[in-house]
Design brief:
The protein is mostly beta strands. The protein is built from no helices and eleven strands. Strand 1 and strand 2 form a beta hairpin.
Length: about 160
């Protein structure tokens, strides 16, 4: 939305929609559609390092997952730090989580996760990445560990 130059603050917004595509018998995914938005602020230092903070909201139908677990609309939050190792490689560390609107930041329902990834520049300003992470707290969706890979392309 704004900013983004060297040694400047940047501001962006992101909207998302999800569709129910998981296997409920295997505890994957939601039974309903969800949507939301994130506000993202970043700060670059000396062309090599970027710090990012984000805050958002996910709108979701309240659902009972088990006798003791429920899910629904939630506040989303996170922060990260990226450092360009050279012209092609970047290392990124992130901590992020969510907290149900009805029980903001209560223990056992607000999962927090940390991830570390390595990215490689492709197609100009695109990047492929691989990484791993782990849940730092309990809560719906907090993994014992998680492997990640993906493609990022800036438009």
């Amino acid at each position: 939305l704004a900013g983004g130059g060297e040694n400047e603050f940047g501001l962006a917004a992101s909207a998302f929609l999800t569709a129910p595509s998981g296997a409920q018998d295997d505890w994957f995914g939601s039974r309903s559609y969800t949507g939301g938005a994130m506000l993202i602020v970043d700060k670059k230092w000396a062309k090599k390092t970027t710090a990012t903070v984000n805050l958002g909201y996910r709108i979701s139908k309240e659902e009972r997952l088990s006798a003791t677990q429920e899910t629904g609309s939630a506040v989303l939050f996170g922060m990260g730090l990226s450092h360009n190792l050279n012209q092609n490689f970047v290392i990124t560390g992130e901590i992020y989580g969510n907290s149900p609107s009805a029980d903001l930041f209560k223990e056992k329902v607000s999962p927090l996760e940390a991830d570390l990834s390595l990215g490689y520049r492709v197609w100009g300003n695109g990047r492929i990445f691989v990484g791993a992470g782990a849940g730092l707290t309990d809560g719906v969706g907090a993994p014992e560990w998680r492997l990640r890979m993906g493609l990022i392309k800036r438009l």
